[in-house]
Design brief:
Length: 302
């Protein structure tokens, strides 16, 4: 199943779309998840309405979601098979195609802020594990006490995965944002804890440029959520943005989510902003909470 929405936005205007992850949020909890997405989109809106950059807006939205313990990113992220946190995040801007990412990162409160520091520093694009930690500490970030970031819900999900005998399980709740600013530049940001009970060192799509995250002013920006191994295999983000050069975000998202399911049997969701500010999304999961803000209004749902 695919569900899509899109909004027209004239040139020179701004737009942001955030997601709280493809998955299966129980009906009783949907409102809380949508509220988290609304808060993130509202923060991005403030930045964009004041003339700020798409890059700042996308990052700020993801920080709000990382700080909200109901999502699988930052505080509240899911646990590895060893009961630890290994965090993935990526941010990219579409003007000069600058990108920064961290993966298998030890607990730090806001991995997306470290990814942004990687982008700004500019020597490399992606740092992993102890190298990511060393970069973060060198850039002035302090490691977090794991106990301050691991929630009871995350512990419970790991216990359930262990009890079911599966190596790793669906977590849902990855977070992301795509934005277009008044100068016509686009950006994308994505952050996640990955899969419940994942093996040490497993890295999903979110921090991989062109898979979970991609931005290019020639097409637009993309943030993916869902089964990371499948998203990696179809290079979902870059494929989507390249198609945005020729088609609107709604048909591009719907078509690619269906193709990913058909080609590699993977489910998930995708949010897109076109270079003209139009927004669109699709999912093949039961839920994907989201919120959008643009100069003419806002909307949210699951
Ligand atoms: N899509 C998030 C992950 O699989 O890690």
């Amino acid at each position: 199943m695919s569900v899509t929405r899109s909004w027209a936005s004239d040139g020179g205007r701004f737009a942001v779309l955030v997601h709280g992850g493809a998955g299966d949020v129980p009906d009783a909890k949907v409102e809380r998840h949508v509220a988290g997405c609304r808060a993130a989109a509202a923060r991005a809106r403030e930045i964009l309405a004041a003339g700020g950059s798409a890059l700042d807006a996308a990052q700020a939205a993801v920080i709000v979601l990382e700080d909200d313990p109901v999502f699988n990113a930052g505080t509240g992220a899911c646990l590895t098979a060893d009961g630890t946190l290994e965090l993935d995040a990526c941010v990219m801007e579409g003007e000069a195609l600058r990108a920064g990412a961290v993966c298998a990162l030890d607990p730090f409160k806001n991995p997306i802020a470290i990814a942004r520091a990687v982008l700004e520093e500019g020597t490399h694009v992606l740092y992993a594990a102890r190298g990511a930690r060393a970069f973060a500490e060198g850039a002035g970030f302090s490691p977090a006490d794991p106990a301050s970031m691991i929630t009871e819900a995350a512990r419970q999900k790991l216990a359930e995965a262990r009890a079911s005998g599966k190596v790793s399980g669906w977590a849902g709740g990855t977070v992301g944002a795509v934005a277009r600013d008044v100068r016509g530049h686009v950006a994308a940001a994505t952050s996640t804890g990955g899969m419940v009970g994942k093996r040490a060192g497993r890295v999903g799509d979110s921090p991989i440029v062109g898979a979970g995250t991609y931005a290019d002013d020639l097409g637009g920006a993309a943030s993916a959520t869902g089964h990371g191994e499948g998203i990696l295999r179809v290079a979902l983000g870059a494929t989507a943005v390249h198609r945005l050069a020729h088609a609107g975000p709604e048909p591009v998202a719907r078509g690619l989510i269906a193709e990913m399911r058909a080609r590699v049997g993977a489910t998930g969701g995708l949010i897109l902003v076109g270079r003209d500010g139009r927004l669109g999304w699709a999912r093949s999961t039961r839920t994907m909470t989201w919120a959008a803000e643009w100069d003419g209004g806002g909307e949210a749902g699951a």
